[in-house]
Amino acid sequence: MDRGIGSAAVEGDALGDFRIVSEPYFRPVGNEVALFEAAFASRMPVMLKGPTGCGKTRFVDHMAWRLGRPLITVSCHEDMTASDLVGRYMLDADGTVWHDGPLTLAVRSGAICYLDEIVEARQDTTVVIHSLTDDRRILPLEKKNEVLKAHPDFHLVISYNPGYQSVLKDLKESTKQRFVAIAFSYPEEAVETEIVANEAGVDRPLAQTLVRIGHRARNLKGHGLEEGASTRMLINAGLLARRGIPIDEACEVALVLPITDDPDMRDALKSAVAACI
Ligand SMILES: Nc1ncnc2c1ncn2[C@@H]1O[C@H](COP(=O)(O)OP(=O)(O)OP(=O)(O)O)[C@@H](O)[C@H]1O
Ligand SMILES: [Mg+2]
To answer: What is the separation, in whole angstroms, between the first and last Cα of the chain?
Structure first.
């Protein structure tokens, strides 16, 4: 076997899994598409900031498709180590073989690497991105004694949920200051109605009712609710309603019960639902 051709084919196949072939639906809310394109053109690392379920992940999927780059997504968690990102030697039948981690694969191949919920990772893990996110654009593979120069198309995106993290769970200043930030929030009524109608496959009047419920629920944030109802929750309620679940029940299971265990807050949310339908 020609090993060169063989390994090239394997690499191509591996990246094929990360290519987004059909357009992910994304309804722009502001100037986020142009901002991302400009940042990508300068290979400036991007941080997406915003509450849960407001479209950050969908936006990255859409941008990867739009820019024609493969997308490698890593969900960060507190047990994640630098080796989980960079790679490690593993034992197989032929001895020890190096396996690229997802970050290294993206750096080598020119993919977009999306580190989702980066604050969940420990700070000593996140510093591995420092040399990639300044003008060096290199990734030291210490265990391999190799310094990898990033592919010209490599691009790093992280997401960050302001409000959830404590002082202990925050990015280092030196990490934050390497990124440009695009702020996400729940869109205004007409735009969110369009998104809910499209994603849940429900008619506009129903989508609008759900969005109004969402607005009322968001007003309770800070008055006993940690987070208001996300766009994702409104879509879930719509999907249930489309399958014949009565709207009040759909709202109860999709957006009242999941966000609070406090009986008074549940009553307040149920009243908000009742007032809108
Ligand atoms: N602007 C938008 N255009 C299209 N769909 C959207 C948009 N905003 C939100 N959605 C819908 O809301 C859902 C939730 O969005 P997404 O998963 O991108 O949220 P997120 O911000 O990544 O949340 P988390 O921080 O919890 O990961 C998506 O699956 C999509 O259906
Ligand atoms: Mg997400």
So the answer is: 67
Residues 50 and 170 placed together within one structural domain of the fold: yes
Let me know: does 97 contact 139? Beta carbons within 8 Å. no
* Domain enclosing residue 167, as ranges: 3-183
For residues 39 and 205, give the distance between their C-alpha atoms in angstroms, rounded to a whole number: 38
* Mean pLDDT in consecutive groups of 10 residues from the start of the chain, 277 residues: 32 75 97 98 96 96 98 95 95 92 96 94 89 96 95 96 67 92 96 98 98 93 83 98 97 95 93 92
User: Is residue 167 located within the same domain as residue 138?
Assistant: yes
Distance from the alpha carbon of residue 222 to the mean position of ligand 1, in angstroms: 22
Domain boundary residue, one of 141, 158, 183: 183
- For ligand 1, whether the C-beta of 161 sits within 6 Å is yes
CATH number at residue 130: 3.40.50.300
Reading the block at residue 175, the tokens are 């990490």
Ligand 1 pocket, 232 CB below 6 A? yes
